[in-house]
Design a protein that fits this description.
homodimer; 112 residues; alpha+beta; Arc Repressor Mutant, subunit A; three-stranded antiparallel β-sheet; 6 helices; 12% strand; globular; disordered N terminus; Transcriptional regulator (chains A, B); DNA binding (chains A, B)
Chain lengths: 112, 112
Amino acid sequence: MELIESHLIDKSICPVARTAQVLSGKWTILIIRDLATGVKRFNQLERSLQGISPKTLSERLRSLEEEGIISRRTFAEAPPRVEYSLTEKGYDLVPVIDSMRNYGKKWLCDDK
Amino acid sequence: MELIESHLIDKSICPVARTAQVLSGKWTILIIRDLATGVKRFNQLERSLQGISPKTLSERLRSLEEEGIISRRTFAEAPPRVEYSLTEKGYDLVPVIDSMRNYGKKWLCDDK
């Protein structure tokens, strides 16, 4: 009985908690935000995300790629060109981020 | 310069990250969900949130009250009646939770 109950609770919590988890990484939201306006190269992202180290950016991009949120395309040029874009799974996060941002702005953060 | 940059980044992240934080507690989402349909008494919540201990429920309710997400009203009856409801700050979380749930259901959780 207890097993069934905690299973039901987990089922109900899971989607919200997992989404919160995906969006909790410091740079994740900003990367998705940048890619929501179109395909970007590595150094465009690096310039936009002021303060991020190339190592951290690489790691975040790889992890978002593994989660299926962004896709990476390499072009055989010299020097090689690498472009990043949102997948459908990534684009679907944009309205979620917007609703969380609106809530946070209204209720949780200073409007400085 | 670095200070300014990290301040800008924090400002951009803050609202989303703080909202994710508010919603990350295990029972929070379910309590808000229950109260979204109207005022509830303590034991109604306890029955609805199968598996929660009275102690945990008290703690969660107190913490949500401190965050201004729910309000608590006591009636001088015998036995005393205590009712909980969402504040405006609490109601505003419902669409956020819904968008996160929809995303999570579509992309992150099994549809069992």
